Amino acid sequence: xxxxxxxxxxxxxxxxxxxxxxxxxxxxxxxTIYNLVLTxxxxxxxxxxxxxxxxxxxxxxxxxxxxxxxxxxGVLFGMLADYLGRARTLVITILIYALFTGLAALSxxxxxxxxxxxxxxxxxxxxxAAGATLVAEVLPERLRVKGAGVLxxxxxxxxxxxxxxxxLLSRYSWRAMFLVGIVPAVVALFVRLKVREPExxxxxxxxxxxxxxxWELFTPxxxxxxxVGSALAFVAVFGLxxxxxxxxxxxxxxxxxxxxxxxxxxxxxxxxxxCLNAGAIVGYFSFPPLAEWIGRRAAFLWMMLxxxxxxxxxFLLPDSYSRALLILPALGFFTNGIFSGFPIYLPELYPTRIxxxxxxxCFNAGRVLAASSPFLTGYLVVHLGTFARAASSVxxxxxxxxxxxxxxxxxxxxxLE
Length: 417
Hints:
This protein has helices at about 10-45, 50-85, 85-105, 110-140, 140-170, 175-180, 185-195, 200-205, 225-240, 245-255, 260-295, 295-315, 320-335, 340-350, 355-370, 370-385, 385-390, 395-400, and strands at about 5, 10. It has a single domain (about 10-205, about 215-405), classed as Up-down Bundle (Growth Hormone, Chain: A). It is built from 18 helices and 2 strands. It is mostly helical and about 425 residues long.
């Protein structure tokens, strides 16, 4: 190791990884806040109409709109990152999701909260496209895959952060949680001052071929990769938002009849989310070495099959809070760990000049369809009677997703352009 380097990375490369990691951790925190306060927030905003069925229904609508915003932001800011630059776009997206998360605290109706969550999602979706591409292009090739795992681990860490903040603020209104979401604006300032555009991106611009259109992703050269990448992301997102992200509501449903105080229930929900994401973080770090060992396609297959089994097991088998805590890490490992594959696989599918556009489109376009997943879960709650039964039925998406891998291109051993 030479002076001024850490584990084979220069100080600047470490800085870029840390900055992108912080952007993603706060991205995760701001996305998770709603899941943690869904029940108390909608109970207040809906007033006399706040029955469990209506909370599930309107909660599903807000989550669906949130995912649409995430998709729009991911595609829009992915394109902007190829035109304007990765670092500049990262600053813009962090400021967007920080500002509108904070403004959500001012909501006085469910549809106002819905609008703020849509605007928040624009920044959250765009941040991943800019950050993942930035890390892929700045890190040396031999450490790029490991770096992708480190970057994705921030999502699990963001869950821990949101759960910890929720536990600390359990005695306060749900609005306080949204106000905390303003904090990431500090990271945006740091990015603006310290991070420069990657050499690969600057060379692509200097070549005079930096201009692109979204339609280029669907030319014969890239069409197959675009459809496969989008389908894989759709499966992962559909399962996560259609089932796993209802975990706080599941735990509240389990604890409700036990006569506990709202503050105590909030703390116990936070602990359950922490257990889920302890497994998620292990999954994030496990996917990269697994992908290097058995290949990208096989690693995705392993995660999908594991999710198909652990999802119904988690929501249907536990008959007590303590047993739920034991199985939640396994659920987090598979349903969240699969996301480490995307900052590895998607940048490998495209050349530098359209890399952020391609990765941003694939990771987010499927969210338009996946937006139906929380809405579907809310619908199923009404007809099946419980969140547990509704969320468990979503597991079939992972089984269907394995068929997509038949058309996926293996990129193991491939270096970025």
